[in-house]
Amino acid sequence: MKNVTDSFVSLGHWPSAGSFGFNTDIFSTNLINLSVVLGVLIFFGKGVLSDLLDNRKRRILNTIRNSEELRGGAIEQLEKARARLRKVEMEAEQFRVNGYSEIEREKLNLINSTSKTLEQLENYKNETIQFEQQRTINQVRQRVFQQALRGALGTLNSCLNNELHLRTISANIGMLESMKEITD
């Protein structure tokens, strides 16, 4: 500090006329130069610096306002998205519940339909079996009747002679005539 005060004191004691020289004390000359430069900057640059700071302040305030508006819009969109999400979740839950009940209903319908189809197939099978049994019984009866008829015809042909044959025919004709009289 002593050097600083010495440099101001030495300014007042300059020798009068005569010599011009350089002050080689770097610390004292830098301090003086800095003081002068700062004084000039403050005096002339105060308006420019004030304008720059005002512009910067306005830009910052505009940016803050824009950010607040964007934040408000984002919050509004977020609320809308949340409301849509809740609505979609409720619809999904309803679809899930309805889907389960629909699946159960379809399952019961399928079981009932399959049961009815199986019952119809069982009835058809039983009818087919009865039909085949009846057809087989009829075929067996027809064969038995044909064999019995052949056997009877064979026995009759071997046992009957012409006279016996004529008497049998006459007896049968008499029976037919008596039946005809009864029906008339």
From TrEMBL:
CDD domains: ATP-synt_Fo_b
Subcellular location: Membrane; Plastid, Chloroplast thylakoid membrane
Keyword Transcription regulation: no
Extra remark: In plastids the F-type ATPase is also known as CF(1)CF(0).
Family classification: Belongs to the ATPase B chain family.
Function: Component of the F(0) channel, it forms part of the peripheral stalk, linking F(1) to F(0). F(1)F(0) ATP synthase produces ATP from ADP in the presence of a proton or sodium gradient. F-type ATPases consist of two structural domains, F(1) containing the extramembraneous catalytic core and F(0) containing the membrane proton channel, linked together by a central stalk and a peripheral stalk. During catalysis, ATP synthesis in the catalytic domain of F(1) is coupled via a rotary mechanism of the central stalk subunits to proton translocation.
Subunit structure: F-type ATPases have 2 components, F(1) - the catalytic core - and F(0) - the membrane proton channel. F(1) has five subunits: alpha(3), beta(3), gamma(1), delta(1), epsilon(1). F(0) has four main subunits: a(1), b(1), b'(1) and c(10-14). The alpha and beta chains form an alternating ring which encloses part of the gamma chain. F(1) is attached to F(0) by a central stalk formed by the gamma and epsilon chains, while a peripheral stalk is formed by the delta, b and b' chains.
Protein name according to UniProt: ATP synthase subunit b, chloroplastic
Naturally occurring in which organism (per UniProt): Leptadenia albida
Lineage, broadest ranks: Eukaryota, Viridiplantae, Streptophyta, Embryophyta, Tracheophyta
